[in-house]
Galactose-1-phosphate uridylyltransferase
Amino acid sequence: MNEQESDIRMDYRTGYYSIIVPGREHRPEELEIEDEGSKNLKNCPFERDTVDRKNLEIMHVNEPWTTMVIKNKFPELNGSTPLDYKKGFFSSISGYGYNEVIIETPNHFDKFEDMDTKKSIEWLSAVIEREEDLYSRNYIKHVMVFKNSGAKGGASIGHSHTQIIAWPEILGTPKIEIEKAIEYKNQNYSCLYEDSIKKENERMLFETEKIAAIAPYGSRIAGESMLLPKRHVNYLLDLDEQEKEDILEALKSIIRTNSKIFGKPSYNFVIHENKNEPDYHLHFEIYPRLADFAGIELGQNVFVNTITPEDYTKKFKDNLLFT
């Protein structure tokens, strides 16, 4: 593909389409601006001495605390809302569910990608403990864990944190991915994601004995990557200790390498998993936020990606930073 050509690709995970436009690959580099939000201590509600433990705390690790989980003070969903479904032309589900925030560190200036292995495992253990509790609650069918970092990543607070939302239904992309995974297994008698590891050689960022990191063929945004265990696992709790360590070190390496390539952009990562869907395959998706969604994404649900996954793979390998 030369710089004048574009390519419309389908993402095998979702069926979404992306326009890969390599001629515009220089554009994200024009936006190399470090997000300053993490430097703002004023009125931060996640400091060790200011967090509202009395009203919000769910659990903490160590004393004084090094990781804390709190209720989201401004939740999208609420466990006290009666679960109710309305069918028909105007269908809806009442806003039942749970929103929690993991404060990853008491230090305002610490970054997720700079955690040492012990601290990363502490974070992951807190995630797993909260998932187990939330899945045990009435009507909860899906628990989503995600991180917004920086203003373009949707973070309203600079202090490093992770969010958890527990849903009464499997909705949106996870629902589509699960349906695709089941359909693929029924047709091919194998796992879609395990097969992606075998087929994505050209876009393999790196791998260990336990995990693989890929720039997916149908990446929706520039610099998108997928990180997954090679063994079929559908839920974080089922990872073995080496898989946990490898996947955490790989996750941090991807974020740090993207910062080197793109100039410390905002980013998101999302953990795609479901405790009760054995055909789903646990994976992390990491998105450096180099551009905003515009009319084509919002109006047609077709994504514009300004760096081919193949070019991103080359840049990534040339700049790879291990933690």
The two ends are 34 Å apart (CA to CA).
